[in-house]
Amino acid sequence: MKRLAKDTAVYGLSSIIGRMLNWLLVPMYSRVLAGTGEFGVMTNLYGWTALLLVFLTYGMETGFFRYINKKDVHNPMQVYSTTLISIGFTSLLFVVLGLMFLIPVSNGLGYNEHPEYVGMLIVIVAMDAFSAIPFAYLRYENRPIKFATVKLLIIFLNIGLNIFLLVLCPWLHTHYPQSISWFYIPDYGVGYVFVANLIGSALCLLLLAKELTGFKYTFDGALLKQMLRYSLPILILGLAGVFNQTADKILFPFLFDDKVYASEQLGIYGACFKIAVIMVMFTQAFRFAYEPFIFARNKNEDNTRSYAEAMKYFIIFSLVIFLGVMFYMDILKYFVAPAYYPGLKVVPIVMLGELFFGIYFNLSLWYKLSDKTQWGAYFSTIGCVATVSIIVFFAPKYGFMACAWASFACNLLMMVMSYVVGQKKFPIKYDMKSAFIYFVVAGILYAFAILPTIESEVLRLLYRTVWLLIFLGFIVRRDLPLRELPFIGRFTK
């Protein structure tokens, strides 16, 4: 557990700090972009990007971990080389076809005035898909420092470019227009967000050059067939899973006749969704550490206790994050402009939905380890149908609130299905008693902290801090003694 916690923390350095820094761009976006509609454009197109990224990796990231750990069967570098060639070929093909049909695709998505937005995202998603494999190789080699360093460098570059293009350039255009007139377009707005991303993705590939050279590329067709047979169900799982996460952002503009209104509402929802992304950050950091952990540990005999312990601590820290965000919402709301405040009511719903998704990810190990990945495809497809149904039927009437509840219901449904089937196919004795106790205690403390009406914002925050400290004390007393913590444990009996 200490090894898993350490790796989660290191991988989380790039994921959590990186996303936190990107998260800090939300206040800037909500104030410098031309209204909530432009934020809606960004939300919609990045929803498509997330879906396409899963499509272009087609489950090979997980397949790579599965087969590279079979050292008695396959040469690790041959697995890595075959995976790189496969992903590289499909990514290049995607770029060629995407740019050939750029105009009709852009028109179909409603961006006929700015097809270059779609063109830039086609190239971005192809580069990011290819980069996913050398990043996976770094995780396999247990090199989280290099992993985190590259991720953070790209994030800092992206943030710097965003500030330069969206804040500094407008100021220079007003005071010293001749200095930037050769490249700067004053009303390009959200387009510069995609320009910054494009530059960052290109540099990322250059920084990973060492992981892409220095070995002989070999292609094993028989191995690729085995990997595809294992990975394609994960592709279906991934597509359905990410569509569950992005269906609201993709479908929302198509459900309203008034496209301007749809973009404005999607912008409000997308900005407030960013507040809840803290839960996503923790889940992603945990995932980066957990996948190599479970596949490497699968070589040993009795691992079910480790899996159960990992689940318990994931739930504990997820609930801490949920309470922390909700208790300090009076501060966090200032990260968006007042025009976005109507969307704040989606934050607790989305966060709980993401917590359920994190638990579902923990539960998913049973079908990955037993090579029954088709079950993941079944669960995600059923969840996807539920998500789309709720959004299509209820979003036209209830707006973005239907999107938030769709995410909540879908993740809860997948979590329950995976647990029920998993206990029959690959039984793991999870500590359900502890999970129940922590959810109940967190729910009670949440009610005590949120329900009382306290006019003073300072007193309200202090009051809620007391309840958060009580929850932390309960965790320390029950499952996380101080002596087990790094540094602090040296001074604690």
Protein model, in words:
Helix 7 runs parallel beside helix 9 and helix 11 (221-251) runs antiparallel to helix 19. The chain is built from 21 helices and no strands. It has one domain (2-487). It has helices at 2-23, 25-32, 36-57, 60-68, 76-100, 102-109, 115-140, 144-175, 191-207, 209-212, 221-251, 259-275, 277-297, 304-327, 329-332, 347-363, 365-369, 374-398, 400-425, 432-450, 457-478. It is mostly helical and 493 residues long.
Quick structural gist:
By secondary structure, the protein is mostly helical. It has helices at 2-23, 25-32, 36-57, 60-68, 76-100, 102-109, 115-140, 144-175, 191-207, 209-212, 221-251, 259-275, 277-297, 304-327, 329-332, 347-363, 365-369, 374-398, 400-425, 432-450, 457-478. The radius of gyration is 23 Å and the shape is globular.
Determine Rg (CA atoms, Å): 23 Å
How many helices? The count is 21
Pairing-aware structural class of the strands and helices? Answer: mainly alpha
Overall pLDDT? 83
The share of residues in helices is over 70%
> What fraction of the residues are assigned to beta strands by DSSP?
under 5%
Major β-sheet profile: none
Query: What coarse outline follows from CA principal-axis ratios?
Result: globular
C-alpha end-to-end distance: 20 Å
- As for the number of domains, it is 1
E-strand count: 0
User: Which residue ranges are poorly predicted, with pLDDT under 50 across at least 5 consecutive positions?
Assistant: none
What string gives the helices and strands in order? HHHHHHHHHHHHHHHHHHHHH
What secondary-structure arrangement, pairings included, does this model have?
Blueprint: H1 2-23, H2 25-32, H3 36-57, H4 60-68, H5 76-100, H6 102-109, H7 115-140, H8 144-175, H9 191-207, H10 209-212, H11 221-251, H12 259-275, H13 277-297, H14 304-327, H15 329-332, H16 347-363, H17 365-369, H18 374-398, H19 400-425, H20 432-450, H21 457-478
